[in-house]
Design brief:
There is one protein chain. Helix content is 31%, strand content 17%. By secondary structure, it is an alpha/beta fold. Strands 3-2-1-4-5-7-6 form a seven-stranded mixed β-sheet, with helices on both faces. It is elongated.
């Protein structure tokens, strides 16, 4: 995958071609392997999220809202023209609208759930996409993001192929790209920082796809045991990550007058008087003796 560059993904036919390239890669054995893992993660994440409006932005090959029970669920394609290959046109949810990922046609605080399956990787400005998602989400709304992990066996093979191409070995086996050329690697650690700046709270991060970078279905099945070991011994080196974050809004609390509550007045307590020495000593003299 190429380094990030605003000029690399124009909002025209070139951006459409990049979206089609990624969609075609998901039809290969490694792509289907990742889609199967992501489908399970999306089903687990959205099944217990409630609200009224949910949006999946990108990747129509994946029905990420299938397990969700919100009454209004839409699939939007950010690329111009839809970028839906014929092989997957009827595989998932039908496309409801085509829109720019950084200019969604929804009012502020109107969506309860937004899914971004590999959407940020194809965006010319992923920061703008996240700001737009923050705008349309209601407070405590969720955003679910999946993306390719640069710190993985698949990412290392992609970097090796890039390095060999710069050395003039593009026609060799070492210079053959494993992942699609379209898009940009965005590590989950960078994504966490971006979300934190937008007042999102990351609730969970999962990684998967620990099998080596092989192309054939039989070889992928032979390394199936690596998924179990990788989740336990090297959990941060999965080929794909899955992140769930919630929009937090720091609200203002109306403060009342700083009056102290009126305390109940205590009942008067009778205090016994101290007896005089006369009462304790000899009896007082009579009135006649005092007059004399």
């Amino acid at each position: 995958m190429k380094p990030s560059s605003p000029e690399r993904l124009p909002p025209g036919p070139a951006g459409l071609a990049l979206g089609e390239e990624l969609a075609a890669w998901f039809e290969t054995p490694p792509g289907r392997y990742l889609l199967s893992w992501e489908q399970s993660r999306f089903d687990e994440a959205v099944v217990d999220l409630f609200g009224y409006n949910a949006l999946q932005l990108g990747l129509p090959q994946l029905d990420a809202l299938d397990a969700n029970r919100m009454p209004h669920r839409w699939l939007a394609v950010p690329e111009p023209g839809g970028a839906v290959p014929a092989s997957s046109a009827g595989a998932g949810r039908s496309v409801a609208l085509v829109t720019h990922a950084a200019a969604l046609p929804f009012p502020p605080n109107s969506l309860d759930l937004v899914l971004l399956p590999h959407t940020l990787e194809l965006s010319a400005d992923p920061h703008a996409v996240l700001r737009e998602v923050e705008r349309v989400l209601v407070p405590e709304g969720r955003v679910v993001i999946s993306g390719l992990n640069p710190a993985s066996l698949w990412g290392l093979r992609q970097y090796r192929a890039r390095f060999c191409q710069r050395l003039g070995l593009a026609q060799t086996r070492l210079g053959r790209l494993y992942l699609p050329e379209a898009g940009e690697f965005i590590g989950h650690w960078r994504l966490r920082d971006w979300l934190r700046l937008l007042s999102f709270e990351v609730e969970s991060v999962q990684q998967g796809g620990y099998r080596p970078a092989v192309r054939s279905e039989p070889w992928l099945q032979r390394f199936q045991w690596m998924d179990r070991l990788g989740a336990r011994w090297w959990p941060f080196f999965g080929s794909v990550y899955f992140l769930v974050a919630a929009k937090r809004v720091r609200g203002l609390h109306l403060l009342g007058p700083a009056w102290k509550p009126r305390r109940a007045m205590a009942a008067p307590v009778a205090i016994a008087q101290k007896p005089s020495w006369q009462a304790v000593g000899a009896p007082q003299a009579s009135e006649e003796s005092r007059s004399t």
